[in-house]
């Protein structure tokens, strides 16, 4: 395994950052909280799902998600609550700044 590959047994982590308008911030934050709650309650492969708002950045929402593996994340993307989240964000014209997988310390090699 190299520093840029994930172990098959390692959790799959996602960092997602979104920018909203002033008007859509509250409704989109509620939608993010809904997706997080449903993911944690309904998906056995979802290990953690945290909704964050960066200090000093108005109208920005960050999601930090941890899944058992990449397959669990792919399953998440097919759930009704994710579809509602994705459609709602599109309807509110939310800008996706980034969505990227993160490697944990178990992926580091020297």
User: What name does CATH use for the topology?
Assistant: Alpha-Beta Plaits
Calculate the terminal CA-CA distance, rounded to whole Å. 11 Å
CATH 2nd-level architecture: 2-Layer Sandwich
Sketch the major β-sheet.
4 strands, antiparallel
Kindly provide the radius of gyration, computed on alpha-carbon positions and rounded to a whole number of angstroms.
15 Å
Explain what the structure shows.
With 110 residues, the chain is α+β, with helices and mostly antiparallel strands. Helices cover 34% and strands 28% of the residues. The chain has helices at residues 25-42, 70-76, 80-91, and strands spanning 12-19, 46-52, 60-67, 95-102. A 4-stranded antiparallel β-sheet has the order 2-3-1-4. Strand 2 (46-52) and strand 3 (60-67) form a beta hairpin. The mean pLDDT is 91.
Provide the descriptors you would attach to this structure in a database record.
alpha+beta; Alpha-Beta Plaits; 4 strands; 28% strand; globular
Task: Compile the SSE list and pairings.
Elements: E1 12-19, H1 25-42, E2 46-52, E3 60-67, H2 70-76, H3 80-91, E4 95-102
Antiparallel strand pairs: 1-3, 1-4, 2-3
In short:
With 110 residues, this protein is an alpha+beta fold.
């Amino acid at each position: 395994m190299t520093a840029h590959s994930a172990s098959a047994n390692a959790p799959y982590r996602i960092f997602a950052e979104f920018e909203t308008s002033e008007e859509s911030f509250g409704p989109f934050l509620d939608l993010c909280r809904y997706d997080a709650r449903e993911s944690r309650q309904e998906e056995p492969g979802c290990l953690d799902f945290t909704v964050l708002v960066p200090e000093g950045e108005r109208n920005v929402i960050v999601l930090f998600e941890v899944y058992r593996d990449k397959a669990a994340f792919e399953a998440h993307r097919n759930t009704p609550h994710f579809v509602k989240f994705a459609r709602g964000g599109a309807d509110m014209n939310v800008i996706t700044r980034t969505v990227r997988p993160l490697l944990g310390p178990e992926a580091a090699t020297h």
